[in-house]
């Protein structure tokens, strides 16, 4: 399969450049831009920093005193140690006692190819995301932002695999703290943190909320989460796909998302044999999904019908429904800290009804969720929700 070949090529190239092995304890003080990267077989503890480089200035969150891209150890879709990149944004000024409280930002869909990583090309919607993140920084939060495993590092990004992304988001907090321990005291990060995300990242933030305490351990002080435009029960929509279903072209955005899901799922679960039921059209666009970033990909998908991707229903594949539910499913129980979900009634990227149903299930299960709706579309909800999410998070930090 093409994705497996791509994986082996990337791992071999990655290992060939390894000249040093950096462990987890006390290593950050030696990191400089261009530090050689360790082989995947010799990675340190999750959350340990492997290398660092400056972020291009045009991608800085306004109000940052410094922005550094880290390569760090995390967990991939196979449960193995892997590498991810991500950025640490340090606010201007002096940190409060104990360090800057941390927002771990989970970004929305950018694509799953290496060139789509936000640390490489900036946010997918910089005009929306950078001012949004600046608002958090104005509230006195440092920001750490994972690119997610496979975006610019070996392997393919397992798009919408919540458990993997939760590891990436939590481990980015550890990596940011390790890196900041080498900085002046006034720039260091606190152990107190929250997850915040939009769209794909909204799902990542809420999934992270379920496992943040477990994945972070006693070294971190998880306070809560915010997710807007959160995709939920997407597995119920994906599993109906097959020849001629849906019978007409849906929006390019939704077609791109389904293409990314298919590419990520066949990478993470080759045992499903998805390639067996891909038509030439399906093979073409799923292959493109592995390299094309979302804006450019949507342009190529205008008029393309997902119903032309498959020669048989997805549910005809053995164990498909159970595997899909495990891959895409959102947790409904076990949350230990308050979390906020906001969604737009006019959202056409992540349909409101499925997310509202998920919020209702959370409420019925007695989970500590606050759910708010807004008369907005996908991006508009992110902006409007700040009137609620900023006070919500500030209360969790005693502000």
UniProtKB/TrEMBL annotation:
<dbReference type="GO" id="GO:0008236">
    <property type="term" value="F:serine-type peptidase activity"/>
</dbReference>
<feature type="domain" description="Peptidase S9 prolyl oligopeptidase catalytic">
    <location>
        <begin position="335"/>
        <end position="381"/>
    </location>
</feature>
<dbReference type="GO" id="GO:0004806">
    <property type="term" value="F:triacylglycerol lipase activity"/>
</dbReference>
<dbReference type="GO" id="GO:0016042">
    <property type="term" value="P:lipid catabolic process"/>
</dbReference>
<dbReference type="InterPro" id="IPR001375">
    <property type="entry name" value="Peptidase_S9_cat"/>
</dbReference>
<dbReference type="InterPro" id="IPR029058">
    <property type="entry name" value="AB_hydrolase_fold"/>
</dbReference>
<dbReference type="GO" id="GO:0006508">
    <property type="term" value="P:proteolysis"/>
</dbReference>
<protein>
    <submittedName>
        <fullName>Lipase</fullName>
    </submittedName>
</protein>
<dbReference type="InterPro" id="IPR005152">
    <property type="entry name" value="Lipase_secreted"/>
</dbReference>
<feature type="signal peptide">
    <location>
        <begin position="1"/>
        <end position="27"/>
    </location>
</feature>
<dbReference type="Pfam" id="PF00326">
    <property type="entry name" value="Peptidase_S9"/>
</dbReference>
<keyword id="KW-0732">Signal</keyword>
């Amino acid at each position: 399969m093409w994705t497996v070949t791509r994986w082996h090529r990337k791992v071999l190239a990655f290992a060939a450049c390894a000249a040093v092995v950096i462990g987890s304890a006390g290593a950050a003080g030696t990191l400089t831009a261009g530090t050689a990267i360790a082989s995947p077989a010799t990675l340190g503890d999750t959350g340990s920093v492997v290398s660092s480089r400056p972020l291009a200035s045009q991608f800085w969150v306004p109000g940052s005193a410094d922005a550094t891209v880290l390569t760090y150890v995390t967990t991939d879709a196979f449960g193995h140690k892997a590498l991810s990149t991500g950025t640490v944004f340090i606010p201007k000024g002096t940190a409060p006692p104990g360090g800057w409280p941390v927002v771990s930002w989970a970004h929305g869909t950018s694509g799953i190819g290496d060139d789509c990583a936000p640390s490489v090309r900036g946010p997918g919607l910089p005009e929306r995301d950078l001012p949004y993140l600046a608002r958090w920084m104005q509230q006195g939060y440092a920001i750490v932002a994972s690119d997610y495993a496979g975006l610019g590092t070996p392997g393919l990004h397992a798009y919408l695999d919540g458990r993997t992304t939760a590891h990436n988001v939590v481990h980015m907090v550890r990596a940011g703290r390790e890196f900041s321990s080498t900085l002046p005291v006034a720039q260091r990060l606190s152990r107190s943190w929250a997850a915040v995300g939009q769209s794909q990242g909204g799902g990542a933030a809420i999934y992270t909320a379920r496992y943040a305490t477990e994945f972070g351990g006693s070294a971190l002080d998880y306070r809560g989460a915010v997710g807007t435009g959160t995709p939920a029960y997407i597995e119920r929509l994906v599993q109906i796909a097959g020849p001629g279903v849906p019978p007409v072209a849906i929006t390019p955005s939704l077609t791109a998302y389904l293409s990314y899901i298919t590419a990520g799922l066949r990478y993470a679960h080759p045992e499903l044999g998805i390639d067996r039921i891909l038509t030439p059209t399906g093979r073409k666009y799923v292959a493109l999904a592995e390299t094309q970033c979302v804006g450019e990909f949507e342009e190529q998908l205008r008029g393309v019908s997902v119903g032309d991707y498959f020669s048989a229903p997805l549910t005809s594949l053995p164990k498909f429904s159970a595997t899909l539910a495990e891959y895409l499913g959102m947790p409904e129980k076990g949350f230990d800290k308050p979390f906020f979900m906001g969604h737009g009634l006019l959202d056409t990227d992540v349909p409101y009804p499925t997310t509202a149903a998920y919020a209702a299930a959370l409420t019925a299960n007695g989970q500590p969720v606050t759910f708010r709706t807004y008369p907005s579309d996908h991006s508009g909800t992110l902006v409007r929700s700040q009137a609620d999410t900023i006070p919500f998070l500030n209360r969790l930090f005693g502000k």
